[in-house]
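Human:
I keep going back and forth on a fold encoding question. Comparing notes only helps if you start from a blank page. Show me how you would write down a chain together with its backbone fold. Write it directly below this note and I will take it from there.

Assistant:
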Amino acid sequence: MTIQAVIFDLDGVITDTAHLHFLAWKELGDSLGVEVNLELNELLKGISRQESLEIILKETGIFDNFTDVERQELAERKNRAYVASLESLGPQDLLPGIGDCLKDLKKRGIKIGLASSSQNAGLIIKKLGLEPYFEAMVDPRSLSKGKPDPEIYLKAAAALGLNPAKCAGVEDARAGIEAIRAAGMTAIALGQSLEQVPADYHLSSTRDLAKVNWDDIVSKE
């Protein structure tokens, strides 16, 4: 049986705002007198804002310098800088192949969902002009656990009215692929960095998504 829905991660899959996140975290780090470098930034991929902040503060040895309230304000300060950087985002920022992929899924009657840990996912999808395609977007604030826990993918499947086994998930990070597999979905891994990560299908880039014959993507049922 072929899959009935495809659930996407956002950053690195539909558009690439990773560099904007990095710049916002770097700006915050500079203001605190610590360095947020590219190596540290790699640890932040696929996880929530608050979890990212905790990693930065712990890795730079200043976690205990702040109260819970102060850490929340730091996360909000980073988010304000990030949201401001999204003003120029538009359809031109779709990753290669994504537009054609979404059109093909819609044409085939395959449902489309979003499973992003970004609290700004709705805003980003709107700016990219993709709102008509997505039938379900999980609010990360409703989650008790982040990826690699499967909760976000299970909620996306429920919102689409489908058994997770009838869904495929698309991710470019190990934690995301692990979440998809734990949810019992068909896992599609993007990028050469995930070639050794267990998944049902491996694609080298988003360009390959436009070439997929979705009739060949088999569900777990």
Remarks:
- The helical segments are 18-32, 38-42, 49-59, 68-85, 98-108, 121-127, 151-160, 174-182.
- DSSP finds eight helices and six strands in the chain.
- The mean pLDDT is 94.
- The longest strand covers residues 167-171.
